[in-house]
Amino acid sequence: MEIIYRQGVLMAEALQLRTRRFEDFWLVASHMGDPKAAVLLLFPLAFYVHRRTGIAVIWVAALSEWLNLVLKWILFGERPYWWIRQSDLFSENPLNVQQFISTCETGPGSPSGHAMVTGAVWWVIVSSLAAFFHARTGSKVLAAVPYLFYAVLLGCVGLSRIFILAHFPHQVIAGLLTGVMLGVCLNRSVPEGRPLLFFLGYSMALLFGALLLHSALQSIGIDLSWSIVLAKRWCSHSEWVRMDTAPFSSLTRDTGALLGLGLAQFWKPGGWTLPWVPRTLCLALSSLALHYVNSFQLPTFPPLLFYSLFFLKYTLVPQVVMVLIPGFVHHLTAKPKKD
């Protein structure tokens, strides 16, 4: 592995040196690949364009990120930004590399969660777009355009993770391949119209399944906090190490979003049928509301309180997008009935 890691950081150094002027682009690409962006940005956009696709985005994002967490616990995997400092290979000839605000994630590095979730979630979107284009025009060339965009997007997200020293190239490739396969498989079983008990069962199974695995690994002597220790030690700015990038944060985000998805369909089965103009208003209001939900600062101590509130925070997201905002817009724009 030392050879693979060494070649990986040399590639990251070359990428930084040759594309430093595109730094802002790489940071935006990395942000767009964040699993959090799938829930807060892609979900409302997809939902108001096509209900099933929006539900599929939440479903696929949650399951793929949960599986990524499990794989990281099992496979471990260093991250470049701390491996460079831990390794003695570059003590005499230090690498000319730089960390960024989104570099210092605290979980293990293999496989890349950004690449894995992006590959899975965006497959849902582009396959839906391709089917729509083909049905409307009958053109296979036009239907292939979304897949071309998909390939470019995956490349940009993958390179951005290498650029900021968050992942080695082999971790990105593993994440992309796994994500594409998950997207293809999970898109076939979207739980639209399922009862609340289904989502409650899934949410609790994922939550307690991960906690049991964590306890089992700890009981056989595997310290799963090793990556957090290294992140705090080798991140160039201590404030860049945040609890919302910790492994348990992704777990509570995924299980909260699934439970919220079930609650939203329970409160208003089938949702509201809205024309395009009200749906555009829904998207604008939902984006504004989710911005405030995301920016709301949670207390980080004690940790159990933080993770509990983080769970509730993402349980709220589907309620806002699927129930509260559409309900408000429906009543706002509904024509009064004539006597």
TrEMBL record:
Substrate binds at R79, R161. Keywords: Endoplasmic reticulum, Gluconeogenesis, Hydrolase, Membrane, Transmembrane, Transmembrane helix. The keyword Lipid biosynthesis does not apply. GO terms for cellular component: endoplasmic reticulum membrane. Its EC number is 3.1.3.9. It holds the Pfam family PAP2. Pathway: Carbohydrate biosynthesis; gluconeogenesis. The active site is at H114 (proton donor), H167 (nucleophile). It comes from the Eukaryota. It is found in: Endoplasmic reticulum membrane. GO terms for biological process: gluconeogenesis; glucose 6-phosphate metabolic process. Residues 53-187 form the Phosphatidic acid phosphatase type 2/haloperoxidase domain. GO terms for molecular function: glucose-6-phosphatase activity. The chain crosses the membrane at residues 56-75, 115-135, 147-166, 172-190, 197-217, 305-329. It is a multi-pass membrane protein. Belongs to the glucose-6-phosphatase family. This is Glucose-6-phosphatase.
